[in-house]
What we know:
Layout (H helix, E strand, L loop, with lengths): L10 H20 L6 H12 L3 E2 H8 L3 H14 L2 E6 L2 E9 L1 H22 L4 H17 L5
Antiparallel strand pairs: 1-3, 2-3
Helix pairs in contact: 1-5, 2-5, 3-4
Amino acid sequence: MRDVKPLPGTVAFRLGTLGAIVGDRLARKIAGYGVKPKHAGLMAALEAGVAASQQDLAARMGVAPSLVVALADHLVDLGAIERRRDPADRRRQVLTLTDQGRELLAKCAAAAQEVDEELAAPLTPRQRAALHDALDVLSENEGLPA
Length: 146
């Protein structure tokens, strides 16, 4: 059997742990806007593409359709997105980002950038660039947007 690293030394564990810490920081920063990171993720997915059905978004985000419905319900209440019947298929609900949603998404992006700065503060400019490059490769490999 090959040598196995202790769990805390694995990339999977480190990224998972850092992800939880950073996710909590971002959640605290955007809580005042009435949203959580998953809401911001749904708005970002809408901004990245054309209007999409709840089913399409669930598949694109890799989450259960019921989660998209719950997130969308909240964002509709905030005026951040709109639901409309698809004229080509009346059974489908199409979601679109509103102007208010774009403003909210921009606030969430600014908050995420603040968290980025806090997280990357101990890194040199070269290390920051290397981190971004590595994350770009990993994200692309998983089919995530850059």
